[in-house]
Amino acid sequence: MTEISIQRTLTQADFNHFAEVSGDNNPIHVDPAFSARTRFGRTVSHGMLLYSVLWGMVQARHPGARQQHQNLMFPAPAYADEPLRFTLIPNGPGLYGISVRRVADGTEVCRGDMAITEA
Which of 40, 78, 89, 94 could pair covalently with 109 via S-S, beta carbons 3.0-4.6 A apart? Predict the structure, then answer.
């Protein structure tokens, strides 16, 4: 199997919708005025919003798959309205390495791995 990769730009509206669904209304994600005063300078994505895009990629390839485990790290922030590259790296049957990088500079904003079982 080969790498699976897509480019997607998450918007502030995406952050806000995810906050509504998840209940995670931390102002670092949804309040541009608050976020402007933080070390990030603007709103940052929920980590699980990034993972949900990756999980959608898994579901497109393996409909009905179930997650067995995941390990995630978020070494840098992902901001609203910046293009991101979401990548699944096959590491064996049901095993994927995962990576999300900023398109502009290649900075990795999410990395880890997951294991799935197919339906």
Answer: 78
- How wide is the angle at C-alpha 20 spanned by C-alphas 18 and 25, nearest 5°? 90
CATH class given for the domain over 4-117: alpha beta
Q: How far apart are CA 117 and CA 8, in angstroms?
A: 26
86/103 Cα distance (integer angstroms)? 10
The upper half-sphere exposure of residue 83, i.e. CA atoms within 13 Å in the direction of its Cβ, equals 8
Is residue 86 within 8 A of residue 100, CB to CB? The reply is: yes
Domain limits, the chain = 4-117
Q: Give me the residue label for tokens 């293009």.
A: 83
What are the residue ranges of helices labelled H in the chain?
Answer: 12-22, 27-30, 32-36, 47-61
Q: Which two tokens stand for residue 19?
A: 């906050």
* pLDDT one-digit tens code per residue, 70-86: 999 999 999 999 999 99
pLDDT in tens, 83-95: 999 999 999 999 9
The C-alpha atoms of residue 17 and residue 64 are separated, in whole angstroms, by: 24
